[in-house]
Amino acid sequence: MTTTTRPSLWEYANPVKFMRLTDWLLPLVGWAAAALVLVGLVWGFFFTPDDFRQGSTVKIIFLHVPSALMAINAWIMMLAASLVWLIRRHHVSALAARAAGPVGAVMTLIALFTGAVWGQPMWGTWWAWDPRLTSFLILFLFYLGYIALWSAIEDPDTAADLTAVLCIVGSVFAVLSRYAAIFWNQGLHQGASLSVAPGTRMDWAYKAPLYVAMTGFGLLFLALVLAGTRTEIRARRMSALMTRERMQA
Amino acid sequence: MIPDLGRYVVEVTLAYAVSLALLAGLVGWVWLRGQRVRRELNAVEARARQKK
Fold first, then answer.
1. Is A55 an 8 Å CB contact of chain B?
2. A25-188+202-248 architecture in CATH?
C-alpha cells in the first residue's frame, strides 16, 4: 500500500522552494495586478458618472478605498507573518513581513493624501482629529517606526524579534483604523463604503470599477511583497557569504 | 477623452497624479533594489566560487 503526502504550506518557508515558486508566480501576479489596477482606475476615472452630491470628487474613491483597504490588510499580513516567525522561526516569514512594511506605508500615505484632498471640498477641511483619520495617521507612524527598526538593528534575528513585537502592538491601530467609525459613532468620516448589509448604498456604476481596483491593489501588494521577499532572501544570503569571506580573510 | 471634472478638477487631478506617482515610485524602488541586490549577490557568489 502506498501513502501519498499532501504538500504543506510550511514547505515554502524553505528559501529555495520559495524562490522556485515565485520564479513563475511573481510575473503572473505582477501582470494581473498591472492589468486590474489599470482597468479599475481608467474605468473609474473616465467612465463613471458624477455623484449627485459629491460631483466628480467621487472618482477619488477608486484610489482611496483600495489603498486604505491595503494599508490595513498589509499590517494584518505583517502580523500573521510576525507570529509565524515568533512561533515557528521561519526566516522567510520574517523577511516577508519586512518586505510588506514599505508597501503598507505607501498605501497608508495614499489613503491619507486622497482622504485629505477629498475631504477639503466635501467637509470643508483637509484634516480633522476624527477617530478614523487619527488612527490611520498613527498606523502610518507605526509603519515608519517598523521600517526604521528593521534598519536600525544589525542582527537580523534580533531585528525580526523586535519588529514582530512592534507589529503586534501596532495591530491595535490597524484594527482601530478599520472599525474606528463604528466604535466611536462620531467624527466626519463615514462608515464602511461597501457593505453586505441590506440597503446597499452604492450604485453598481461605482461598485464594479471599485471591486476591480480593489482586486488590482490586492494583487499589486502581493506582487510587491513577493518581489521584496525575494530581494530580502538574496540580501540575507549575500550578508552570510560576506561574513564567511571576512572570516576566511 | 478627458472627463469634465467641473469645479473639482484640481482635487481629482491632484489625487490621481500624486497617488500614481507614489505607486510608480514604490514599484520602481522595489524593482531597482531587487536588481541591485541580485547584481551584488552574483558578484559575491562569483568571488566565493573563485576561492574554492
1. yes
2. Up-down Bundle (1.20)
